[in-house]
């Protein structure tokens, strides 16, 4: 008899009259596969995401692009379904399904009517556990991916952000390499290496099935057991893989890099080393980032676009990973405005590093973060993403009220301290545009 696994309730939210509006439950199967669900009162849809603890930073140089290549191939057919069968199964019930690859994880997801959730679980379970990785599909999809790489190479924003990461972490570092791979690396990948990568990384203890919407947790677990139990995939016993950790901080390389493309604009990313994912100062940095370049009232938008008219688009960003992180400002401008743009951005960063931000800017930044968080969790897809990331990446599901409290607790002194630290670090600059 198969062991049942362990189940516990992570959170229960009630309205003012005591009725349950949301309940989060988690089951760990003996194989190590985790099933995390959020029951949403009043929802008529459900979203499932299968999260795999593998991304581009797990690739060697000879496997560059394998995670993204594999993401494509899992849609191409299984022992039970052809590629067309997979597409038809969800299309005929009006479902939406797709996948994405990041530096530290891969996610396959589907959004359906609540009554069609068992079908979505079955299709994704079949794809993830029983893909054929057929030789003909590898060759056909290779051309599709090369097309995708060429498309990204025509997008100035993609080019400059990839160049910025490459300068920051190094062209030979897994974090510094592009997620999709290069023309050379994709051309060199063969079926055998991709299949071995699939078997090595797509294991139950490295996966999370996250589901949100109108659902019953016990029923979801039963459907997952059936769908993922094909070909004895759940037969072994293992402990789940914990959050990704690195033994030491990953070095960031300051400096500048420039490449020529036949674009009308110059695209620039100016930044520096930021905070790693687990840094407790991340809430202060989030408020700072929003106030600095997170909207039309932000300091950078007002100074660069509204007052000086130097660029149409300007924003700041943060990226946080295990062992490292980056902060930066992204701008697109006419070539003859580049020097003025860089001078203005550097001046604002130096001012923030020296003096922090104002009470009014902090209040606006907090408001933006709070509103973005709550409004972004109005549908089952957003809730699923929150569940999946919390379980796979953070191993800690902060309740929404807890996150709001953490945001509200950020002080001006905390923001000033993190600004003085981060924005005084050595500069990283990436520039992409037409030849001068």
Secondary structure blueprint with pairings:
Elements: E1 6-14, E2 20-28, E3 34-40, E4 45-52, H1 66-73, H2 83-91, E5 96-101, E6 106-113, H3 117-130, H4 135-153, H5 156-169, H6 183-188, H7 191-201, E7 207-213, H8 217-228, E8 255-260, E9 266-273, H9 282-293, H10 299-307, E10 313-321, E11 324-333, H11 338-355, H12 359-375, H13 380-394, H14 400-408, H15 412-422, E12 428-433
Parallel strand pairs: 3-7, 8-12
Antiparallel strand pairs: 1-2, 2-3, 4-6, 4-7, 5-6, 9-11, 9-12, 10-11
Helix pairs in contact: 1-7, 3-8, 9-12, 9-15, 10-11, 11-15, 12-14
Tags for this entry?
globular; Cytochrome Bc1 Complex, Chain A, domain 1; seven-stranded mixed beta sheet; 436 residues
> What strand order characterises the main sheet?
1-2-3-7-4-6-5
Q: Would you tell me the overall average pLDDT? A: 94
**Largest sheet descriptor:** 7 strands, mixed
Principal-axis shape: globular
Please state the CA-atom Rg, rounded to the nearest Å.
23 Å
- Total separate domains: 2
**Structural class estimated from helices and strands:** alpha+beta
CATH architecture identity of the largest domain? 2-Layer Sandwich
CATH class of the largest domain: Alpha Beta
Distance from first to last alpha carbon: 72 Å
Order of helices and strands: EEEEHHEEHHHHHEHEEHHEEHHHHHE
